[in-house]
């Protein structure tokens, strides 16, 4: 008969046995990784409330809470939008100064015309309510669900991205919405994106499900409008992934260790881990340069875009009040802090939740024909590396964005961060709708030339960037600091 | 091991974050399956957890709470899926039967936990597999520590009894 101690040991042994992870779990994990690596999902900036992380998670009584927040029940029972839809044509013109990648879209975009506008009008006239201001709730580019009508009206595309103007009209007025640091309403959407040119064995390269934080504004209490930017700079990373895995194994072999030896809890394990990470980070860049293959975007294709959730953050969200001040919380012992955290109600641990959000759920699906215009895309092939084997592959400039592609030769140390300065020495601004740190918004910057620096990753993060922001360095001082420390520097002249 | 990766991941290093998540795959899968009865739902919960974790990592104040934080997010995602399923089942008037998958149900690991009800299963997993203490578990599961201790003790007894019985049967 087992003793109690034996039983404890047995429990530990049995529960810690590895199980076979099913393929579908690996697939979903890989999909999440792709969304992270593609910068489809980006890290949020730290909140002022340091315990907000305790409030993220699943949602409670979703439908019910949503109904309370935005009056879904009423909307669902009322199939015809009682409100007149604003004119959607010309949205680019209204929005193009409000996005991080601002520029003149209106003079390059084309209007998405309903394929059979007359037939649709005829059908609407038979079924719609008799009010003069009623608008069609369903068409190729207009879909209604949950009291929210979403319409796409204009498009511009090149081989780097597709830009669409979108408006969302709510039957009930939108609640007051929080504005972010860039003075944009905090709106997010769960979307599913696929491109017709990625079929069969390439289908898995589609962006798939992704969270989008569109850039836009409220036109009135019922209408939100934005410019959606969808990335079409797609890459096949299959071969890269194989080589990366091989490289990791080779590093372990070279060090004469296994994954189990990389143990940060011990001094020896931590040292091994540091060495391992340094070796892997150093080699990953050259593999990326060699084995990641760009996908060619055809001149004409179809974009499938489904939206399943539209969520806003309330202007004055209700956070759980622990009864302690922030200072008191920060000064608590671990035990005291845990005791307080034990009291966080479950309904605050979910996203979206009725205390912080309002949201709409449904199926807004669109098939949108895309014609690519590359006439304004300039690709400058550089393909140069320095004695350390690091350098620049190319720079791609579109009317609105600039992408820097570094190059790492085999054997080089690729643990670098890219910094780009415009012709006036200003840091190039990031494109908030892309998330890639190598993709910049041109805005109204002088990009007759740009300075590209590759800087040691850790040095940049822990030292240079900190000095730039903390010491509020002038452009000349910043450039001098980069000149002094960069591992690679190149000034590239661009056409105007 | 996680500390260094966490530091890099918090700075937006996707590779470090993915390595961190790779280290959690076994435990995330086991915990997800202790709540959810099919691999597809478990995969969805894990995917959502990874994305949510990545998005919110810079807000994690103290790295030593990482495991607790991650597990709490995962369990909330699992509960969210369960909640949605229950709503669907109720609406569609379908029988409330779980969607068991043969491979997992017959696996040695799951067979070991078979005698346990779900309410004991998750607590034993967190205690014996994840190494959380009862205070951690009470925080993760939002329940009183005294309840955690009671269920831990009861779950332990159930398994002990089950295995004594099982061993006797094998020898019979």
Radius of gyration of chain B: 18 Å
Average pLDDT figure of chain A = 79
Specify the structural class of chain B: mainly alpha
Broad CATH class of the largest domain in chain B: Mainly Alpha
- In terms of per-residue confidence, which ranges of chain B show pLDDT below 50 for 5 or more consecutive residues? 88-102, 165-172
The percentage helix of chain A is 25-40%
Oligomer: heterodimer
Portion in strands of chain A? 25-35%
Fraction of helical residues of chain B: over 70%
Largest interface: A-B, 73 and 74 residues
- Overall mean pLDDT of chain B stands at 74
Instruction: Characterize the main sheet of chain B.
Output: none
How many DSSP E strands of chain B? 0
Strand content of chain B: under 5%
Distance between the termini of chain B: 46 Å
What is the domain total for the residues of chain B?
Answer: 2
How many domains of chain A, as an integer?
2
Counting DSSP H or I runs of 4 or more residues, the number of helices of chain A is 12
Gross geometry of chain A: globular
Describe the global form of chain B: globular
Low-confidence stretches of chain A: 1-5, 47-87, 120-135
Question: Can you walk through the features of this model?
Answer:
The complex is a heterodimer of chains A (496) and B (172). Helices cover 28% and strands 27% of the residues of chain A. In chain A, strands 1, 2, 3, 4, 7 and 8 form a six-stranded antiparallel sheet that branches. In chain A, strand 13 and strand 14 form a beta hairpin. In chain A, helix 7 packs antiparallel against helix 8. The radius of gyration of chain A is 26 Å and the shape is globular. The N terminus of chain A is likely disordered. The C terminus of chain B is likely disordered. Chain B has ten helices and no strands. Chain B is globular, with a radius of gyration of 18 Å. In chain B, helix 1 packs antiparallel against helix 2, helix 4 packs across helix 5 and helix 8 crosses helix 10. The chains are: A alpha+beta (496), B mainly alpha (172).
């Amino acid at each position: 008969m087992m003793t109690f101690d034996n039983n404890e040991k047995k429990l530990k042994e049995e529960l810690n046995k590895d199980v076979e992870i099913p393929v579908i779990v690996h697939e979903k994990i890989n999909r999440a990784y792709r969304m992270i690596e593609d910068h489809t999902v980006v890290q949020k900036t730290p909140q002022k409330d340091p315990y907000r992380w305790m409030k993220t998670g699943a949602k409670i009584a979703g439908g019910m809470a949503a109904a309370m927040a935005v009056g879904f029940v009423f909307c669902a029972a009322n199939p015809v939008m009682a409100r007149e839809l604003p004119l959607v044509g010309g949205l680019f013109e209204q929005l193009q100064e409000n996005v991080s990648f601002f520029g003149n879209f209106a003079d390059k975009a084309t209007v998405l015309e309903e394929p059979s506008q007359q037939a649709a009008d005829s059908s609407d006239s038979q079924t719609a309510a008799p009010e003069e201001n009623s608008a069609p709730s369903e068409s190729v580019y207009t879909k209604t669900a949950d009291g929210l009508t979403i319409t796409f009206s204009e498009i511009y595309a090149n081989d780097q991205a597709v830009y669409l103007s979108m408006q969302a009209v709510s039957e009930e007025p939108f609640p007051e919405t929080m504005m972010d640091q860039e003075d944009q309403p905090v709106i997010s959407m769960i979307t599913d994106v696929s491109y017709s040119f990625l079929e069969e064995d390439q289908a898995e390269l589609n962006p798939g499900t992704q969270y989008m934080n569109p850039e836009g504004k409220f036109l009135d209490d019922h209408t939100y409008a934005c410019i959606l930017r969808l990335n079409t700079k797609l890459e096949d990373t299959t071969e890269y992934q194989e080589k990366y895995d091989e490289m990791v194994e080779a590093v372990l072999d070279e060090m004469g260790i296994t994954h189990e030896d990389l143990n940060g809890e011990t001094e020896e394990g931590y040292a091994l881990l540091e060495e391992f990470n340094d070796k892997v980070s150093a080699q990953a860049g050259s593999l990326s340069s060699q084995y990641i293959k760009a996908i060619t975007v055809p001149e004409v294709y179809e974009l499938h875009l489904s939206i399943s959730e539209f969520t806003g953050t309330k202007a004055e969200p209700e956070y759980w009040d622990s009864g302690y001040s922030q200072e008191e919380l920060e000064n608590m012992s671990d035990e005291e802090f845990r005791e307080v955290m034990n009291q966080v109600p479950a309904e605050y641990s979910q996203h979206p939740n009725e205390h912080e959000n309002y949201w709409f759920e449904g199926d807004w699906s669109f098939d949108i024909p895309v014609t690519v215009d590359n006439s304004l895309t300039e690709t400058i092939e550089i393909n140069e590396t320095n004695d350390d084997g690091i350098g620049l592959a190319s720079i791609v400039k579109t009317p609105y964005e600039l992408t820097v592609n570094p190059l790492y030769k085999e054997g080089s140390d690729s643990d670098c961060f890219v910094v780009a300065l415009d012709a006036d020495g200003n840091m190039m601004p990031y494109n908030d709708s892309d998330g890639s740190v190598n993709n910049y918004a041109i805005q109204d910057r002088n990009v007759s030339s740009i300075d590209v620096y590759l800087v040691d990753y850790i040095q940049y993060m822990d030292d240079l960037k900190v000095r730039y922001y903390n010491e509020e360095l002038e452009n000349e001082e910043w450039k001098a600091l980069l000149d002094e420390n960069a591992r690679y520097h190149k000034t590239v002249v661009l056409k105007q | 091991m996680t500390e260094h990766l966490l530091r890099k991941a918090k700075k937006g290093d996707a590779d470090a974050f993915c390595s961190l998540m790779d280290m959690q795959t076994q435990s995330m899968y086991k915990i997800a399956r202790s709540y959810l009865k099919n691999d597809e739902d478990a995969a969805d919960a894990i995917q959502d957890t990874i994305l949510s974790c990545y998005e919110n990592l810079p807000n994690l104040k103290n790295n030593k709470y990482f495991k607790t934080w991650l597990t709490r997010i995962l369990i909330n995602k699992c509960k969210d899926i369960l909640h949605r399923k229950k709503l669907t089942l109720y609406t569609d008037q379908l029988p409330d039967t779980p969607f068991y998958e043969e491979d997992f149900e017959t696996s040695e690991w799951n067979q070991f936990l078979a005698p346990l009800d779900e309410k004991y299963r998750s607590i034993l997993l967190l205690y014996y597999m994840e190494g959380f203490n009862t205070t951690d578990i009470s925080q993760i599961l939002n329940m009183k520590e005294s309840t955690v201790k009671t269920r831990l003790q009861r779950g332990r007894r159930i398994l002990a009894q089950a295995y004594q019985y099982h061993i006797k049967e094998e020898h019979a």
